[in-house]
Amino acid sequence: MSVSSSIASRSGAQERMTARERRTRFWQMVQLVPIMAILVLLFGGALVLAILQSLGFAPWFGVNTFPDFSYFGALWGSSTFWVSLGLTLYYATVSTVIALILGILLALALVKTFPSKTFYKYLYKLPLMIPYTVGIALAVLMLSNGGMLSRLAAFFGLIDDPAQFPQILKTHYGWGIIAVYVWKQTPFITLAVYAVLLGIGRETEEAAAILGANRRTIFFRVTLPQILPGVVSSTLICFAFNVGAFEAPFILGGGFPDTLPVVAWRYFNDADYTLQLQGMATVVSIGLVAGVILFGYLAAYRRYERRMGRN
Amino acid sequence: MKHTATVASLLALFAAGAAQAQDAEAAQFRDGFLAGEIDWSAVEARAAEEGTVNLYYWGGSDLLNVWMDRVVTPALAARDVTLNPVRITGTKDAVDLVLAEKNSGKGVGQGSVDMIWLNGENFATLKRQDALFGSFARLLPNAENLEWNPDDPRALLNLRDFGVETGGAEVPWSGEQYVCAYNADRVAAEDVPSTFAELRGYLEANTGKFTYIKPPHYIGNTFVQEAIYAHNPDGNGAEPFQRSVDEIPAEELARLIAPGLDYLRDLEPLLLDAAGGTPRYPEDNAALDGLFLNGEVDFNCKFGLYAVATGLATGSYPEAATQFVFPEGNMIKNKNYLAIPANAPNPGAALVLADWMTSVEAQASKLQQTGMPAGIDGWTLEEAEAQSIVEASPGLVGVTQAELDANAAPDTNATLVDVIEATWLEYIERDSTDPIEAIVARAYDNLSK
Question: Which residues contact B304 (CB under 8 A, 6 or more apart)?
C-alpha cells in the first residue's frame, strides 16, 4: 500500500516535470521561429534554388534539363577548377593562421597591465569598424605599382619608374589578399580570445608557474587548452568568410586562375546568360567544400573536447 | 551578383504559376502606337499620366551620372515625367531583371525596367528572348535626326547593332569608335605603331608596356576582334565577320580567326607583368586608365573618340596623351542604343524619354558634358543644328576625323562575339593545348544548347 502510493506520487511528480519541460520546450521553439523563418525561407530557399539551377533547372532562361550533372562534370573535370580551389583554400588558410597567431599574441599582451592600456584596447578594434572594401582600397593606394610606396620609391630615385616596384598585389602569392584579411581579422580573433582569457582568470597559469613550468609549457599545456573554444569559434568564422569572399581576390588577386567565388562571378557576369547555370554549379561547389571542411574541423574539435572530459 | 540572380530566380519561380497576363490598357496603347494610330500628343499626355520613367544604365561614369541629374531630370520634369535613373554595375543586370520578370508572366505595363542603355550581345539576348517593346524608333518625332535609308551605307549603324538587325526596337544614342592613345612623354613619335606587327616590334624593345582589357569585357573583345580582322587570312578584314553563327560553319570561322589569336598568344610574354609569370589584363576602363596615367603602360585602347580630351580635362589621362591611328583600316566603329523592354511599366514615358534623348539639344549637351559622341547623324540635321553638335565636341587630340573615318571598320556579329570570346578564354587565358578548330567547335556546341 505505502509502496504503491509512493510510486504513484513519484510518477505524478515526473508528469508535472515533463509538463513544465514541455512548456519550456514550447517557448524555446517560439523564440526560435524568427531566426528559423529567415534561415529556412531565405537561406534554405536560395540554397535549394541554387542546387536546382546547378542541376539544369532554369526554365526562366529557357533551360530545363533537370537533373543534369553535366555542369558539375564540366567544372570538376577541368584542372583549372582544382587550381582555383587550391588558391581559394591557400588564401583562406594562410590568412586565418597568421591572424590567429597575431590575435593570440595580442590578446595575451592585453591581459597584462601596462600604461595607457585603455587606449590600446580601443585602437586594436579600429579595423573591425572599417569595411573590407576600404581595406582593399587602402592596399591598392599603398602597395600597388601605382601606389604611394612605389611613387615615393620612384621620387627618391630608388627605382626609375613606379612600374619597377616589386609587385605585391595582383600575383598568385596573394600577399595583398592575405594582408587585407589579416588586417581585418586579427582584431576579431583578439576580441574572441581576449574575452575567454578574461573569463578564465590567471590563477591556473600562476599555479603552473609556481610548480616550475616554463612559459612555453604554460602556454601550450595550460593557456591554449583553456582558450581553445574562442580560437575555434573565431577561426571558423574567419575561414568560412575567406573561402566565400569575392572582393579581395577580385581586386587584389592575380587574374586567371581565379579563386572560386571570382570564377562564379565571371560566369554570372557573362553576357551569355546560360553560363549562369555553370556559375551556380561553382557556387554550390564552394558551399560543399566549405561545409565539409568546417564540419570536419568542428567534429575534430568535439572529439578533442570529449577526450578532455568537457561536454 | 549571386544574390540578385538568386532573388530574381526566386521571384521567377514563385510567379511562374501565374498566367501570362498583361496590363490590357498598356497593351492597347502599345499596339496602337506601333501601328501608328496614336499621335505624339497622346503619347505625351500618357507619359505625364504615368509620371515616372525607370532608366537602367551603367553607372560607372561620373560625368554621365551628373549629366543625367543636371540635364535629363529637369528636361523630363518639364514634360511632367520624373526620371528614375537606376545605376547598375553591368548592363546585364537589367537584362536579367527583364527576362526574370517576363518569364514570371509580367507583360507590358507590369515590369520594372522602362529603358536600358545597351548594345551588342545584350540587345541580341533581349531580341532572341522576344523581350522587346517593338519597333518604335522610326515613329519618334526625332527619328528624322537619323539616317534610315537602307540604300545609304551610312545607315548601317542605325539598322544593325553588332550585325543584329535592330528592327527599330532600339534607338541610337551614342556613336563610338575604338581609338588608342599613347603617352608622348614615353613613346617617341617615330615609334608609335600603326599595325599589329609594329606594336609587337615596340614591345620587343619595351617589354611590358602594353595590355588590353580582359575579355569577356566588351572593350577587350573589341581589341581581339581588331587583331582578328587585321590577321584575316583572306585579307578582307571585317567582311566575313558580319554573318551570324548560323551562316558560317565552325571550321570556316576557326580558319579565319586562328592567325589573329595566334598573334595575341605570341604577344602574351610581352604584355604587362608577363615577366613575373602571368600577363596582367585589367578588368575595366578604370583599371586601364589607372595603369596609363601611372606610366605602367604606354598605350590605352578603348571606345573613346573624345577620351583623351575628356581625360585631360578630368585629369584621368597623362598630360602627354595623344590619339593615333591603330590598327590601320580596322578601327571598329559602332553605336550604342536605348531599348524599351517588352514589360516596360511606363511605355508612354519611355517613348518620351527616347525621343528627348535623340534631340539635337540632348545630344549636344551630352557630347559637351560627357564627351560621348553624338548618336544622331549630322548630315540629316539643319546646318545650325549640325554646327551646334560640332561646337559641343571636346575635340580630337592628334588625329583628324577624316583619318578616323578612313580607317573605320564595322563591329563583329554579336553571335560570333560569343564564340570569339569563348575561344580567347580557352586558347589564351587557359592556355589550352587543343587546336583552335576543336575549341571553336566546342563553343558552337555550347551556344546551340
Answer: B176, B179, B181, B311, B371
